[in-house]
Amino acid sequence: MNTAAVTLRLADVSDADTIAQMSRDLIESGLGWRYRTDRVRRLITRRDTSALVACDRSGTVGFAVMQFDDEHAHLMLLAVRPSHQRQGIARQMMQWLLQSARVAGMVSLHLELRASNRAALHFYRSLGFVQTLVLAGYYEQRESAIRMMALLRAPDAAPPSNDWLLRLRRGR
């Protein structure tokens, strides 16, 4: 699989059902299904959330959902279909999200993953995330989670300049 054949775009409400089904099957398997279509649709329409989909000729092959706070971002969901895993798609999505968080002036990006998911742990470490905490029983009191964080800028450093946004608004 050539990752050049995969395109990334912001999700819209028509993607909600596909994202919800992929979340159920690839992330929430063995747990209660929390990210149903209605919830995903609400996330997609929120101003403080970025939902991203990765698509090829066959349709949606991956997605990610990240929520922004004042200075911190939180990766809520990320999945790639098994048929497309280990081909750089998750890395492409994470690079897009990390850059978005930096441009938005975020200090850090946080996430949780199943403690048993060693492939994901290795993946996030390769992107510069560090483990900050183990949360016993985080997933419905059945499975522990590892909380991770990537520092995007020093907390006391000024966020990036919005000069580019001002120029865009002025039509320059």
Strand content: 25-35%
Across the major sheet, the strand order is 1-2-3-4-5-7-6
Q: Report the biggest beta sheet as strand number plus sense, adding barrel if it closes.
A: 7 strands, mixed
How would you state the average pLDDT, rounded?
A: 88
Order of helices and strands: EHHEEEHEHEEH
Uncertain regions: pLDDT < 50 for 5+ in a row? none
How would you sum up the global shape? Answer: globular
Set out the fold topology.
Elements: E1 7-10, H1 16-27, H2 37-45, E2 49-56, E3 59-68, E4 72-80, H3 89-103, E5 108-114, H4 118-126, E6 130-139, E7 143-151, H5 163-170
Parallel strand pairs: 4-5
Antiparallel strand pairs: 1-2, 2-3, 3-4, 5-7, 6-7
Helix pairs in contact: 1-2
Model description:
- It contains 5 helices and 7 strands.
- With 172 residues, the protein is an alpha+beta fold.
- Helix 1 packs across helix 2 (37-45).
- The radius of gyration is 17 Å and the shape is globular.
Overview features:
172 residues, seven-stranded mixed beta sheet
Briefly, what is this?
The protein is built from five helices and seven strands.
